[in-house]
Specification:
Elements: H1 2-27, E1 35-40, H2 46-60, E2 66-70, H3 76-85, E3 92-95, H4 97-102, H5 111-116, H6 127-130, E4 142-143, E5 149-154, H7 155-160, H8 169-182, E6 186-189, H9 196-210, H10 212-219, H11 226-245, H12 251-254, H13 262-265, E7 272-278, H14 282-287, E8 292-295, E9 301-302, E10 309-312, H15 320-332, H16 336-344, H17 362-371, E11 375-376, H18 387-399, H19 405-423
Parallel strand pairs: 1-2, 1-3, 6-7, 9-11
Antiparallel strand pairs: 3-10, 4-10, 5-7, 5-8
Helix pairs in contact: 9-10, 9-11, 11-19, 18-19
Protein name: Extracellular solute-binding protein
Family: Belongs to the bacterial solute-binding protein 1 family.
Pfam families: SBP_bac_8
Length: 424
């Protein structure tokens, strides 16, 4: 009997201790704290700034004395690196998977928050793990939107030339060949100043040619399979072939086009059959007045990774109040009302939600329907720091005939190997 009593006392002590610890942790959180919380994010356009303001208003209900400062910027990555390295970084900021790895020493691990708020279960499959794949078992950021790309095409041109939507890569090339041979229309628009559109297409080609597991090994700096090398060389050869065939138009002209205005100034003229771009440009396509349709890259994987994710400054590793505020901040982006606002503004949520009854444009609806089955791929310039710049330059040189596909691979791979070496 004595042992049973002792055991009962021990259990009660444990329960009381656990309750006391939880209560103590809760009382450490100061919901009336008065301070500014600066958020250096990527939501620099008017539509997303407005939604951010709505998030701030929601947080006021629980945190009445915190002023959320929206410091979103188009060049937020550059600004973020400078501020964090100088010790003047923001409390909360957004990162993509490469920026997260680069800035990891400045980011607080938030695995406890992710588990407590069930963010994995509340997100689309693979969304939470995407930016955290380089730190298995640990979470440092939480996304709330995706960044899927697809082909946008001029429906009138496709109807006039009796073109079918391509479902294989061979059919895609056949469509471009027919447009070039049977009309004066430009088969494929590209903003060559950065070459974003053509690079995203090359990424799709590499992922669907080399095999996704080999691509992942290269992307996560584990190895460079021969299949990946060969796929990149083939992709550069493909780009040169398209240029030689005139599918992109005059190369010198194309290389001077800025991606911020090419939809209005090139596609918007009505003589372009199609281009490859992201869902964040849907409003720009709609503004052209051209009846536009959408179809996915004809392959299993597309460039449709998660967008930037929210991270907490490492300075707050041991600050229960700021960690609680960050948890509520991220949770606000999972709120059905906020998710709906992003969706109706033309963005693709990475959060599970019910879109029934929400109002979206026909083009947005078509985009969502026609890309729903494409598996999540990678923006391959995120494989290592500096890759986007070298890929832009390298692809431009291929287009101008200044580099062979093999030389292009060597130039790109040199930068990749250098970045991997520096990381080690």
């Amino acid at each position: 009997m004595g042992k049973r009593v002792l055991a009962l006392v021990f259990v009660l002590a444990l329960l009381t201790g656990t309750f006391s610890s939880a209560l103590a942790a809760e009382t450490e959180i100061d919901y009336n704290i008065s301070r500014e919380v600066r958020v250096l994010g990527h939501l620099a356009d008017d539509a997303r700034r407005e939604i951010f303001a709505n998030v701030a208003a929601k947080l006021k209900e629980k945190w009445p004395n915190i002023e959320l400062v929206d410091d979103s910027a188009n060049d937020h990555g550059i600004k973020l690196r400078l501020e964090l390295s100088s010790g003047s970084g923001p409390e909360i900021f957004s990162v993509d998977d490469l920026l997260q790895q680069e800035l990891l020493p400045y980011i607080s691990e938030i695995s406890d928050i992710v588990e407590e708020r069930n963010f994995v279960e509340r997100s689309l499959e693979g969304a939470l793990s995407f930016n955290n794949q380089r730190t298995p078992g640990q979470y440092y950021s939480v996304p709330f939107t995706m960044s899927p790309c697809a082909f946008f095409y001029n429906k009138a041109i496709f109807e006039e030339l009796e073109l079918s939507i391509p479902t294989t890569f061979e059919e895609l090339e056949a469509v471009m060949a027919k447009i070039k041979a049977e009309s004066d229309y430009l088969p494929l628009a590209n903003a060559g100043l950065s070459n974003r559109q053509i690079l995203w297409l090359l990424y799709c080609y590499v992922m669907n040619t080399a095999g996704i597991e080999d691509v992942r090994a290269w992307y996560f700096q584990q190895s460079t399979p021969e299949t990946v090398k060969n796929a990149w060389i083939e992709a550069f050869a493909l780009l040169k072939r398209w240029c030689d065939a005139g599918y992109l138009g005059d190369v010198e002209t194309v290389l001077g086009i800025d991606h911020l205005v090419y939809i209005a100034n090139v596609y918007g003229k009505g003589n372009v059959a199609m281009t490859y771009d992201g869902d964040w440009r849907i409003a720009d396509f709609e503004a052209t007045g051209i009846e536009t349709g959408v179809f996915p890259y004809p392959g299993e994987y597309g460039t449709n990774a998660v967008d930037f994710s929210w991270a907490l400054n490492k300075d707050f590793d041991n600050d229960p109040t700021m960690r609680a505020f960050f948890a509520d901040f991220v949770d606000a982006f999972f709120d059905p009302e906020i998710v709906a606002q992003f969706y109706e503004a033309g963005y693709t949520p990475s959060v599970k939600f019910d879109s029934e009854g929400l109002t979206v444009s026909p083009l947005r609806e078509e985009f969502m329907a026609n890309t729903a089955d494409q598996k999540v791929g990678y923006f391959l310039d995120n494989a290592a720091p500096g890759m986007f710049d070298v890929l832009t330059k390298t692809s431009q040189q291929v287009m101008l005939g200044e580099l062979t596909p093999e030389q292009a691979w060597e130039q790109m791979n040199d930068r990749y190997e250098q970045a991997v070496s520096e990381a080690q």
